[in-house]
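Run: sequence + PBG -> complex structure.
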Amino acid sequence: MNRLRRLRVNETMRRLVRETRVDRSDLVYPMFVAEGENIKNPISAMPGIYQYSVDRIDEEIRRVEDAGVSAVLLFGIPAHKDEVGSEAYSDEGVTQRAIRRIKEIAPKLLVIADICLCEYTSHGHCGLVCGEEILNDETLPLLAKMAVSMARAGADVVAPSDMMDGRVAVIREALDAEGFKNTMIMAYSAKFASGFYGPFREAAHSAPGFGDRKTYQMDPANRREAVRECLTDIGEGADVIMVKPALAYLDIVREAADRTDCPIAAYNVSGEYSMVKAAAANGWIDERKVVMEILCGIKRAGAKIIITYHALDAARWLREEEWGNGGA
Ligand code: PBG
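>> structure
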C-alpha cells in the first residue's frame, strides 16, 4: 500500500518534505502617509492599520524593523487634490518627504513607491479625465514625472498601479534619462477591477468621484488577457510583475509564473485583510493559522513577493516558528 501518511508522522518529517516556505524576506508591508502633523488615524475597516503623518512615521518604521520586514510600499494622502494630481509629482509631496525621512532613519529598508494619480486627483481616477473619459496617453508623462520624483526622493522601486497602456515604457525611459538606471519597476500588470479594494479607498481617500475603473482595470473574468498584460509589461521593461488581488486570482498568479521568467508579486489587498480581521474578531477563525495558510497559498501559486497588511504579524509568527515555539 502506498502510505502517504509516512510523510506526515511528525513535525520534523513534515518539515523535511515541505515544498513551500514563506520567508520574512518575501513580505512587503503597505503604509499610508498623510499630510499633516501628529497624525495616527486608524482605518476602521482595517484594524491595526493606520495613516501616519511624516513626523510620526519613525514609530511605524521602528515596528517594521523590529518585525524583521525589509520592504515597505508607500501610499500618500495629500492635503490638496486637483484635476491633474499635482502633489503626486511635486518633490515636496507627502510621499516624497516620507521616503526621504525613511531613508534617513532606515537606509537599508527597501522603499517601494506606488505610482498612480488616484490618491492625488480631485475626481479620484487613476489618470487625467476629459468629460467621462479617462485619458491614456495624456496621463503617461505625469506618471513618468511622478516615478522620477519618487526615485529622486530615494525610492528603490516604483510600482505603477494605474493600468494605463504604455506606462512601463515611458517610466523606464524617464528614469534612465534622469540617471535612475537602477531604480526597479514592479508593475501592477494584471490588476483587476475588484470589489476587494473597498477598504483601501477609505484608507487612501481614493474612491472615484464618478463611474468606476472598468475602462482601465481588468475584467475579473479574463485569464488569457492577464497573460498579455504581463508579457506587455515585461516587454516594456518591468523587472517584477504583479497580480492583484491575490486570493480570487491565484490561477492568474500560477499562469504568470508558468508563462514568464520574471519574479512575480501578488497583492493580498485590503478587502482580503478586512475579511480575515472581521472573522477573527468574531472568534470565527484562528487568525494566525488562516493568515499563514493564505500566505503559503499565494507563494505556492507562484508568487515570490507578497504584499500584505499582515506582514508585520506574519513576520513575527515566522520568527517564532524558527525558534521552535509555535507553528501549526
Ligand atoms: C491605486 C491603488 C489601489 C490599490 C493599490 N493601489 C486602489 C484602486 O485601484 O482603486 C488597492 C490596494 C488594496 O486594496 O489594498 N490605484
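>> summary
The first strand starts at residue 27 and ends at 34. The two ends are 28 Å apart (CA to CA).
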